[in-house]
Predict the structure.
Amino acid sequence: MKFKKETRSGRAVHGKWYGDACAVAFGMELIGERWTLLVIRELMLGGRRFSDIRASLPGLSAKTLTERLETLQDLGIVERAYLPPPVSAQVYQLTEWGRGLEPALQELGRWALRSPLHDPGLLLTPVSLMLSLRTMLDPSRIGDLELWVALDVGDEHFAGRLRRGELSIHPAGDGVMSPDLRFSAPGASDFLPVFYGKRSPEEAGGRLKIEGDPALAQRFIDLFVLPPKWGS
């Protein structure tokens, strides 16, 4: 069951900041407020409860999150829905139009990673890690590889399906049964030195655990490549 979308009449959007007809300017007016893109990022893999979004973004106050979600609903980017029984919880989810922002987030991420100022040691949420894997996948390396992969980050579980040259990822509730590979770690950042730094789990401190055929696991890890730093 979905809530009827509510809008506030007379709310100026296009031109409220820049008075510029450019679609890029309009896009910034839609999603350029602080925290807005990160809220959208946390909803990109599916609907989430208010408390879950707040827990993923500890620097975001409940008041600001409420305001951002209300604005995104007014704009048609986010909608509210109920999870079916036995959960019956209210969640916020992206509309079809809102989900269309993933390619823009991917391109922004690839571009920003080229800066030598990027600090990979800061907080990384599980959803951000999953979107990073979808972004940094090099299709030219996939070949005929197809598999199911479980990605467990603390208490959060995700299922990845590599098929026909694409990687789909979605939340997996209590976890994935009998995947081809399973990667488990306490935090999202524990994946980075192995997947992007190309270090062995032992060299990276042993926090990332891998279950499955070692050769297949290495082939999967080798699919992910960071862009080169600008000026390097």
